[in-house]
Amino acid sequence: MRQPAGRIRINAGSHRGRMIEVPSGAGSRPTSARVREALFSILVYLEPGVDGSTVLDACAGSGALGIEALSRGATQATFFETDWIALATVSDSLQNLDLADRGVAKRADAQKPPLNRDTPCDLVFLDPPYASAVAAMAPHALIEAGWIGPKTLLIIETRRSEPVIPENGFTEIDCRGYGDTSLYLLKMSIEA
Questions:
Q1: What's the average model confidence in pLDDT over 146-153?
Q2: Which CATH class is domain 6-188?
Q3: pLDDT category, 16, cuts 50, 70, 90?
Q4: Is 82 exposed, middle or buried, given 0-12, 13-18 or 19+ CB atoms closer than 10 A?
């Protein structure tokens, strides 16, 4: 039986105050409540916003970002995770919160994503392990697979001391720092 590393609280929306498990293992580093609250406060003022959006949580871990988005009115969320324990944790959280009809967890790698046959997502959260190349490499793979389109808002979380963002093809909309964390909000450049 797997043991969770801990639990975190959903900040706002229809599931405010409910808890989700954090999967055990060194690869999981859930976005702090403070950073999640700040991020979603920013998203209220940016297109396309959260309410009514489709979401990809591309390095899901606990699924905190995608589940927070569902709680705040996102219509659909897809969660990519390569770790089986984290994948099971996200699936369990979606079931426990009665969100399984609006969220699906897939064993997938953001750097080699499955083909998206629907329209691109409105919001893509990319919170990979720090000190990895995922933040720099995955966005282009997600474009090629149809997850990111011209109207998609891409949110990348990195360690503040080691900023890692895509080299080209994206325009920075905003960048914010919170302690050791940086959030980059990006859109595809017109020429991408």
A1: 97
A2: alpha beta
A3: very high
A4: middle
